[in-house]
Amino acid sequence: MDGEELTEQETALYDRQIRVWGADAQRRLSKSHILVYGMKGTVAEFCKNIVLAGVGSVTLVDDRVVTEEALSANFLILPDENLYHGKTLAEVCCDSLKEFNPMVHVSVEKGDISTVGVEFFEKFNAVVISCCSLAKKKLINQKCRKLSKRIAFYTVECRGSCGKIFIDLQDYKYSKKKLEETIECQLEYPSFEDAISVPWRALPKRVSKLYFAMRVIEQFEDVEGRNPGETSIADLPGVLKLRKELCETNSLNESQIPDALLERLLVGTREYPPVCAIIGGILGQEVIKAISGKGDPLKNFFFFDAMDGKGLIEDISEPSTGS
After folding, report:
1. Do 275 and 161 touch, CB atoms closer than 8 A?
2. pLDDT tens for residues 278-311?
3. Which residues, including other chains, have CB under 8 Å from residue 297's CB and lie 6 or more apart?
């Protein structure tokens, strides 16, 4: 991402950040372009973080209207109906984000980006996807991977007290300092489709129960033709039935996916603002790492559960795509 040097104004504004990660990393950030699909509370936190960090531009996509649920978790939506009446979620959030950092260009793109051509994604350095079906996530990830340019791809989801991030950096090379030596590193990431297709029996023995529980609910929503979060406790019998089928197919003990955890995920479909802040913070940090080339990136799933306060990294890959 070579290009112009930082302007005097940028150098003054981002002085503290430059002291932490250097002028070259800040230059990379300032010339980067981020595409964001789905303006939920977690994504609002993420957008705030990268706008304050000083990326070049952020393009928002979300044609939905403001709802009571959106108001409860998305702090970018001001509680005055006159300010968002007749506007889409993306337009409302765009207005608020511009005030955080006038040096970052924030804009809105309308329509369904899963239907656009591959060339649409070429102008972006990172694509962040939320609140859409598994099929759309697979399709958008495939389009990002078809380009000769490497595009960092992320999906993010928050269900009540739990959250999840998926990361695909494709063939990612970076350097890090160890004592006085600079070490060249390389990570191979699987695509979204390949990652969620890894047979459970092929996974490491101590994979998070949250991984399995969220996969069961995702597959339930997929089979039922629902969007993420369009479930309730009334769906528990169907979810338990699917869990039994998946566990039998994958030779997994059902105790790995506790009833109580599934119930919690079904009841807590709304976002919980403190969890949004944590997941949005981690996601912002990961995108900054990938663009700046500073720091070890996560590979390739991150899970957080507020009930125990733990964040877990899970490498869900076929053996051939290991570190």
Report:
1. yes
2. 999 999 999 999 998 888 999 999 999 999 999 9
3. 167, 169, 172, 174, 187, 286, 289, 290
